[in-house]
Amino acid sequence: xxxxxxxxxxxxxxxxxxxxxxxxxxxxxxxxxxxxxxxxxxxxxxxxxxxxxxxxxxxxxxxxxxxxxxxxxxxxxxxxxxxxxxxxxxxxxxxxxxxxxxxxxxxxxxxxxxxxxxxxxxxxxxxxxxxxxxxxxxxxxxxxxxxxxxxxxxxxxxxxxxxxxxxxxxxxxxxxxxxxxxxxxxxxxxxxxxxxxxxxxxxxxxxxxxxxxxxxxxxxxxxxxxxxxxxxxxxxxxxxxxxxxxxxxxxxxxxxxxxxxxxxxxxxxxxxxxxxxxxxxxxxxxxxxxxxxxxxxxxxxxxxxxxxxxxxxxxxxxxxxxxxxxxxxxxxxxxxxxxxxxxxxxxxxxxxxxxxxxxxxxxxxxxxxxxxxxxxxxxxxxxxxxxxxxxxxxxxxxxxxxxxxxxxx
Length: 409
Ligand SMILES: Cc1ncc(COP(=O)(O)O)c(C=O)c1O
What we know:
Layout: H1 3-9, H2 11-20, E1 37-40, E2 43-47, H3 60-73, H4 81-84, H5 88-101, E3 105-109, H6 112-123, E4 126-128, E5 134-136, E6 141-145, H7 150-156, E7 165-168, H8 173-186, E8 190-195, H9 207-216, E9 220-224, H10 240-243, E10 251-255, E11 265-269, H11 271-280, H12 292-307, H13 309-328, E12 341-346, H14 348-360, E13 363-364, E14 367-368, E15 378-382, H15 390-407
Parallel strand pairs: 2-13, 6-7, 6-8, 8-9, 9-10
Antiparallel strand pairs: 1-2, 3-11, 4-5, 10-11, 12-15, 14-15
């Protein structure tokens, strides 16, 4: 391509700019399984970035199950479910998810992101199959928590903001009520979209209040439970009261890349709505599904985590202990004590230096800065992995203390 054309499109300047700014580092190439450590070519670093918190994929029973499922079901789906049917592994997983979430039906997608995008596509569909058969929900109104995941905002971006698409202040049920009160006078089809656990600040939605409001104002509700699925819920765990309410949401979306630690996503909800997502989401009909051995292993891991709650309990206890240790040392952490531990650094340039210093100390700790967080609120997010050793955790704390002294955050 000639230089004038490159300049016209602006990508060369863009890449140079984000490199110079420290916002972006050329993505490194990993050469071994990603878990408590990560190997970039021949350099091994301790990894506090992985959302695969339990590291189940490295357990012998999981590998064995995966290999057997690959033999039984093969490696590919080879096309969408509408054209050639749905695999037994997918069906088992979806039936189990419907059961776990207390919903009539569930549908899986190749990723959680595709589930979210597909949901909003489906719920705003205008589609005529024949003269007598069609659907028109192009008048649906969406109210999203302002901090909802990119996939939800992106999928809704075709809706005119302020007319069909609205935001309520993060986790603010009072603000949601104001919107619902006003909108429900004129509109019948309203959907409130929110997350259970927000991944940047680790905050938990006031689920009871939000769902009470949805019921009161006859709105449907969609909870993206990507970061809470299989983690919170049981009575003895934190946030039990909030999670006790989650089944009241009309739809529950989950990701299998976090606690379950494979890849894929799903939505559970009312029978015919979820059934129609096969066609109307677009992200089922026009793309591949979860690979069969992965679908089967997701099912196996979900079952394992339900039969052995001590696996997650142990993880959460360790994560709480790390949080307490950091609090006692005076670090400013996200105030909701979820398993997502964010350490406030402050200015973006300090956060870049802290991130780079961690790399020099052979550790990966992701950094969030504006526009992912408010200006002046750059943070690093620590994800403990079930297979981190105590020595690795101690080293993390030591390095943080050293950096705190040097950079004063
Ligand atoms: C709240 C939320 N929703 C959806 C997703 C997307 O999930 P997946 O990684 O399965 O595509 C994520 C992952 O970052 C998330 O945090």
